[in-house]
Amino acid sequence: MLRGVWSMGGGVNWEAVSAVGELVGAIGVIVTLGFLAYQIRQNSSLIRTNTRQLEQNQDIAIAEALGHSNAQQAAMLAIGQDVALSDLFFRGLRGYEDLAPAERMRFALVMGPLIAGVSTQFERQLKLGLLDDGRLAEHIVFVTDFISTPGGRAWWKRYRNRYHAAFRDAVDDALNAVGNSA
């Protein structure tokens, strides 16, 4: 092939050089297109894998958001099973400040996880965009049943800053509505 590049007169046969250049260019284009097709297939496969993983993560997050907190369940179970703790809890709801310091601590150790469980569910559903008015109302009604009592309000005033701002605001709004309707 190179023999045709040199003409009989010792000069360069530019037509032959052009033909070789076009052939090399065409081979380069074909190789490049093949490589791009390979990369597109790899990228599509990676996107499908990532999409499946995101869907699985979302399913897990939704299940967690809709589930109850273990701490909340434990607090409710403890109140239900221990007569002395149940008595302390209801006395605390009537008058948190009337409790002895050790009793206030026990009350807080029960009330904290009880409210934190609801707050955690609220936050997760908020982040996932799952909070509609119905779910929001369920969370807040549960919490305000406890916090709208005199002792619950005193406890909330002391511990409210430990919770997510959106949850605090929703609880405060519900407490104000309960206070205005009473």
SSE pattern: HHHHHHH
The major sheet is characterized as:
none
Distance between the termini: 101 Å
Share of residues in helices: over 70%
Using DSSP, what is the number of strands? 0
Mean pLDDT rating: 79
Low-confidence stretches: none
Q: Which range does the strand content fall in?
A: under 5%
**Mind telling me the C-alpha Rg?**
35 Å
> What number of structural domains do the residues give?
2
What best-fitting shape do the alpha-carbon axes yield? rod-shaped
Structural class: mainly alpha
Number of helices: 7
Topology:
Blueprint: H1 14-66, H2 70-81, H3 83-94, H4 101-128, H5 133-147, H6 150-159, H7 165-181
Helix pairs in contact: 1-4, 2-3, 2-4, 3-4, 3-6, 4-5, 5-7
Give your account of this protein's structure.
The protein is mainly α and 182 residues long. The chain has helices at residues 14-66, 70-81, 83-94, 101-128, 133-147, 150-159, 165-181. 81% of the residues lie in helices and 0% in strands. The radius of gyration is 35 Å and the shape is rod-shaped. The chain is built from 7 helices and no strands. Helix 4 packs antiparallel against helix 5 and helix 5 (133-147) packs across helix 7.
